[in-house]
Amino acid sequence: MLSVSTSIFIGNQAAGDGGAIYLEATTATLEQNAFLFNLAMLGNDVFSTDSKISR
Q1: Which among 38, 25, 30, 43 has a CA at the least distance from the CA of 4?
Q2: Count: domains in the chain
Q3: What is the extent of the structural domain holding 21?
Q4: Per-residue pLDDT tens for 1-55?
Q5: Strand order in the sheet with 27-31
Q6: First to last CA, the chain
């Protein structure tokens, strides 16, 4: 499980998916975060597969 709140993700990069956060088969809570200038093939900011995300 991942829980992130009031964070800033700036200028992150991934060669594959999920520039700032990559989730696979998990649960996550993402509250009041800022995502700026992140880059990836899919999901520049957040990429999720088989996961449940709460905001």
Answers
A1: 30
A2: 1
A3: 2-54
A4: 999 999 999 999 999 999 999 999 999 999 999 999 999 999 999 999 999 999 9
A5: 2-5, 27-31, 52-54
A6: 14
